[in-house]
Amino acid sequence: MAAAQFEVPKLSDTAYTTVPKIQEGSMAHVKTFPAVKASQEFLGYPFELADDWKERVIERMGQSLKKYRSLRVFMDACVHCGACTDKCHYFLGTADPKNMPVARQDLMRKIYRRYFTLPGKIAPWLVGAEDLTKDTLNDWFTYYHQCSECRRCSVYCPYGIDTAEITMAGREILNYAGMGQKYSSEILNKVQKIGNNLGLPGPALEDTLLGLEEDIEADTGVAVKMPLNVKGAEILLITPSADFFSEPHVESLIGYAKVFHAAGASWTLSSHASEAGNFGLFNGNYETMRTVAMRIRDAALELGVKRIIVGECGHAWRVAYAFWNTLTGIGYGGNDPFSIELQSKLDSRYKQPMHICEYTWDLIQQGVLKFDKSLNDHRTVTFHDSCNVARGSRMGDEPGGQFTIPRNIIRAVVNNYQDMAAETIGEGTFCCGGGGGVLTDDLIEARVKGALPRMNAYNAVAQENGVNFLALICAICKAQFTKVVPYYGFDMSQVGGVHQLVSTAIKLEQD
Amino acid sequence: MSALTVFYIGLYYVAAIILIGGLAYRVYEYASTPAPLNIPTTPAPITKLGVRFRMFREIAFFESLFKSNKWIWVFGYLFHVGLALVLLRHIRYFQEPVWFWVELIQPFGMYASLAMIAGLAGLWARRFLVDRVRYISTPSDHLILVLLIAIGLSGMTMTFVAHTDIIALKTFALGLVTFDWHPLPSDGPLLVHLFLVALLMIIFPISKLLHVPGVFFSPTRNQVDNPRERRHLAPWAAALDKDNG
Ligand code: HEM
Ligand code: SF4
Ligand code: SF4
């Protein structure tokens, strides 16, 4: 582990994280790198503030207030009750009051009040309204990049005020004014130019998949395939590109392939749409999010598939589950030519899109998959609910299926399972600390400190129940935890995917 | 008719117009702003009926707040339930004969006003005692609590200490509604009470009291979790599909 340039928070003796006393400005120095000219221009944004930056900020804010009811209502409805103040992992880990959800909202609300409300225009001091200055934008840039858009605050607010919506709007306004974030900007370039966030070109992807096929065969003696761009395949698998070559992500990809193999399914990956992730969500730009998602629609039409299944990725599943139908017509119920063109080709016996966990769990229930659980006996497993899956999506037919289905799969493939403390999982789950476009080295201090509440809960089951494996269904969680758990004294091999566990235990027929 | 009566009559008509007109405008604004994406905080109900039930629990029990913070919930709930009872009790000033159930709740009114003040006091204390809440509080957050406490205390003065001429007051109030104006009794506590209530009505549509219409329009609470079955499409977003053919 690299020597930390900052103080790593101490783990507590219990699963819970105590609420700190506020320390003003304690995270003001943590700033993400600004985006460069070429990548911002590609996205259609200026890369620095021009003379008319103030007008641009107000103009964009006015437009967003008209386009998004969430922003419109949330700006007005907050009563400053304070119920959300101790709900954000970044506040719990850093004590910086601007990381309290309501304070993060207020960074925008004070400008909203000053320029869009009567009391703020005539008596700004009374209602906490403030003039827009460059300091305001700097604060936005700092603190809208210390929010992982995890929606935990929204669960606990009496009006469901979702700070993620405000962070998204804030980042969109910043981009429009000329203050983009390097990390997200570059990723949005790569996915649009090359087809995935990692910038892995088609031929490299093909090589990687062939290599993996050889590895699996050497390992198991079974010729499990990883098909690419197969026209007429039944299933199109859309998975985060990290699955193709990052550890431990690739272990889950192997798991999906084994499941498809065992089920005898006809499936394919696509090089055009070799990315499930969609950073358009994080930046709050509908058009960008739509453009990125359209690659999947295009691939589905081009390959003529009947089903679309999504691999282990949190925000990708939120975009797929909740937004693909709206953005691209992948789903049901469309009555316009655009969506009918696609929906008429999909197999209506199945959910569209479907999560890989829904798929695997269906097969387990049908008795199609066979496991030797004892192969996972060296592991005692716990499951981390990823925020976008937990609070922004669903699996299965019942509310809360996103909690039960992954756990059901794990229990079907391992003998030793232990949940973390109830308040830290399910809808109240703590973010890994790296979601929402902050998974970048320039924000490592926020990432490590923001992981504290989850690390406390994990530490408790590790100490008391001997848990040594943190099972995940999110590419960002996997990357974040492998990087961050060593700061808290855990080995990064304790981090892995749910389908990695499936992969270990599944019994494949020799052909 | 005295200048005082004329002033209060005018004040109440202005206040009523601002309250009703202002709230109607806000509701129109919220309703006409599109919600382009399906963003309920999940797990969320998957039917319309389920959503109504969720909203009911939020409004009747402050369900999310209960999950969130027991102190705020206790104080907030005391205040709001107290306020609701007190408001319902006030209906008797505006009708003749008085509805049966309004008569029925009269005895609770006294306890309700105490609960309301106790709740408000607790909420106000948090603004000083809890460092996080102190940090986010603006002068208007304090003043609105002061305003409500002052309304409550001036009202309670009339109930518990110095009784006002209720018959004359009722004649005045009924007169406002029927446009058949009568003089207002000029007791100090009553004048203060009525003035502050009018002030509350006036600031309602431009203050955080907008949480009242807001709670009904919050997309994270009032949307059905059904995005795979239904295509949610805002008009401005539908235009993008056309370009794509
Ligand atoms: C649909 C009806 C209403 C609902 C569901 C509702 C709900 C809430 C909730 C959950 C809170 C936060 C907790 C708290 O601080 O109490 C709150 C705060 C507040 N409400 Fe309401 N409310 C409603 C009507 C009203 C009305 C009619 C008024 C006043 C005329 C009012 C005045 C306030 C004030 C002043 C606060 C802030 C208290 C503080 O400073 O902490 N509410 N409301
Ligand atoms: S969305 Fe998550 S990270 Fe952002 S303020 Fe809310 S709790 Fe914190
Ligand atoms: S819980 Fe909601 S209403 Fe209360 S301070 Fe936070 S955002 Fe505002």
What keywords describe this structure?
heterodimer; A: about 500 residues; mainly alpha; Fumarate Reductase Iron-sulfur Protein, Chain B, domain 2; 3 domains; 4-stranded parallel sheet; 3-stranded parallel sheet; 25 helices; about 50% helix; B: about 240 residues; about 0% strand; binds protoporphyrin IX containing FE; binds iron/sulfur cluster
Write a short abstract of this structure.
Chain A is mainly alpha-helical. Helix content of chain A is 50%, strand content 4%. Chain B is built from 13 helices and no strands.
How would you characterize this protein structure?
The complex is a heterodimer of chains A (511) and B (245). With 511 residues, chain A is mainly α. Chain A folds into 3 domains: 37-180, Orthogonal Bundle (Fumarate Reductase Iron-sulfur Protein, Chain B, domain 2); 188-359, no CATH class; 371-505. Chain A is built from 25 helices and 7 strands. Chain A has a 4-stranded parallel beta sheet with strand order 2-1-3-4. In chain A, helix 1 (37-43) crosses helix 11 (182-193) and helix 19 (356-365) crosses helix 21. Chain A is globular. In chain A, 60% of the residues are buried. The mean pLDDT of chain A is 96. Chain B is mostly helical and 245 residues long. Chain B is globular, with a radius of gyration of 22 Å. Classes of the chains: A mainly alpha (511), B mainly alpha (245). Bound molecules: protoporphyrin IX containing FE (HEM) and iron/sulfur cluster (SF4) (2 copies). Residues 78-84, 101-102, 157-159, 161 of chain A line the site of one iron/sulfur cluster. Residues 87-88, 90, 101, 104, 147-153, 163-164, 167, 431 of chain A line the site of one iron/sulfur cluster.
